[in-house]
Write a structure and sequence with these properties.
The protein is of the alpha/beta class. It folds into two domains: 112 residues, NAD(P)-binding Rossmann-like Domain (Rossmann fold), CATH 3.40.50.720; 162 residues, 2-Layer Sandwich (Dihydrodipicolinate Reductase, domain 2), CATH 3.30.360. Helices cover 36% and strands 25% of the residues. It contains nine helices and 14 strands. An eight-stranded mixed beta sheet has the order 8-9-10-7-11-12-13-14, covered by helices on one side. It has a six-stranded parallel beta sheet with strand order 3-2-1-4-5-6, with helices on both faces. Helix 1 links the parallel strand 1 and strand 2. Helix 4 runs parallel beside helix 5 and helix 7 packs across helix 9. The chain starts with a strand and ends with a helix.
Amino acid sequence: MGVKTAVIGLGIMGQRMLEHMGRHAGYDVVALWDPSREACAAAAKLAPGATVTDGPDAAIAAADLVYLACPPEPRKTYALAAAGAGKAVFLEKPLGVDVAESEDLVARLEASGVPAAVNFTQAAGAALTDVSRAAKAGEMGDLVGVDVVLTYPAWPRAWQVAADWLRFRAEGGMTREVLSHFLFFTSRVLGPLEVVWAKPSYPQDPALCETQLLARLETAEGLPVSILASVGGAQPDRQEFTVKGTKTSRRITDFYVDARSDGGEFVEVRERPADPRAASLKAQLDDLLLLIDGKPNRLATPAEALAVQKLVETMLAS
């Protein structure tokens, strides 16, 4: 039997993780909960052996690991309930939207001593692992900065529209949902970052999330991180992250395609997986088992997620 797991929040990410936990021998999903009956019904088809509970407390009580894929606002309450019951906690990002609340959450998770991590999906992936190794080994020469380019024809993207909260300024937006992944990646490679300046643009409707973001961040040594993010226009999605070195540079596109340049065209460094999402989630779930067993792992800590949240909220408030 695998780790007895409860999934709270059964929207896009909850169902996606539920499906891949079902493929992994290390997990046994025993409990499901979401305030939406429709979401519960859809999730139950993916995990017919799990019980749809009558509330989050019952789901937490049934499991040894609680995966939280709910929107940011209620996540702290469920995470602390799970930690208080001695259960391991795996949270979706962003960690939260209120920095003070997230600082309290991180402190209380650390004090509880339970295994806890945040699902930045590149954390255990081949790209971040290899770029970090190459940078530390000096293979890239001196690092000179990072460029991040995100462009979308619309936000939310077509596959996200069911998660309506993503379009609102209160909890959603591409900066929290997507850029945060690359800020985490950058911090792992370059170290802690600070916002030098940022200029977000918002629609006339004050309830809606940002449509543009230009920003410059820097490391303590002054290495620049340049960000361009925008929504609109007839175009495909573009998610491009480049770590620049004096000998070689590495470009990650669509989260997993890793390419290397020594001044010429970027050339992919490894064969693409047949199912990139499955490969990514399996790596995350493999390392989550290491975390639960008290072993070294590559997952994002709550403290790392808090550092990313602070950068995000600073830029959005600029």
